[in-house]
Each structure stands twice: as C-alpha cells, then as structure tokens.
Amino acid sequence: MTTERPAYRSDSACREIFDQITDKWSMTVMAVLDEPRRFNEIKRRIDGVTHRVLTQTLRRLERNGMIIRRVLPTSPVGVEYSLTPLGESLREPFNRLLAWTVANTDQIRAHQVAYDRRAHDCPYQDSSVPRQLEGPEPA
Q1: Does residue 81 contact residue 37 with C-beta atoms inside 8 Å?
Q2: Measured between alpha carbons, how far is 84 from 65 in angstroms, rounded to an integer?
Q3: Nearby residues of 27 by Cβ (< 8 Å), 6 or more positions away
Q4: CB 61 within 8 A of CB 29
Q5: Which tops the pLDDT comparison, 3 or 120?
Q6: Cα gap 42→20, rounded to integer Å
Q7: What average pLDDT does the segment 54-68 reach?
Q8: Where are the beta strands (DSSP E) in 1-139?
Q9: What is the pLDDT of residue 46?
C-alpha cells in the first residue's frame, strides 16, 4: 500500500495558515474544545495562557473557520466556543501527531541530551567550519 504525500506548497497563504493552525496555543485550544466551552473554562484548562493571548487565539481560529463563537442568551450575556466541522476534521491528524509525540518522547529526549553533551564538550560550536579554518586554538 502506497501513501501519496500531498504536493508541497510553498506559497505564503498556505504557509500562513499552516503556521496559524500549528501554533502552540491554537492546538491547545482546539484540544480543549472536545465540547463547547465558555471563555473562562477554556482559560482555566490551559496552564499559562493569558487573557490577551487566548482572546487573540480564539479570534484567529474563528477567522480561519476552525471554531464558532456563539452568544448565549443568559444574563449577563455569555459566549461559548466550539469546533466547526472543519475544526473537527483536524482532530484526527492532530491526535495522530500527539500519539507519535508521546510514543517517541523518550527517544527524542535521549537524542537531545546526547546532542547537548556533545555541543557542551566541543570547543568549536559551529561544526560546519573545519577546525583548520578557524585559526589556532587559544593558549
């Protein structure tokens, strides 16, 4: 079975949308929206997000058609957010990416530790420059 990869698009519109969708806060908000939620409930569920950043993220997701904002007929007026069908369609690939990350975290961390150890022990941080071109070592 062959899985075809979609053609890579380098145009700025595609890149901009991809960047917005994969933004740290966007993915976190979409993960929290497994059911409709009000602003403060979303904020309580996301550690470290500020009011301003959450507002900007929700607006961007709404603009991109990933979520819908619904004004509730309550007193005082409330607002809840939920995923649109387009946003729901991102849940499956996002969950696969998250599962891959969880499954490979230990291996990736081991590589990071090994790299950091090599980079720390090596007096020449730029390994792309041959040592003989860098000049003599300090005495």
Answers
A1: yes
A2: 7
A3: 21, 94
A4: yes
A5: 120
A6: 19
A7: 96
A8: 37-38, 67-72, 78-83
A9: 96
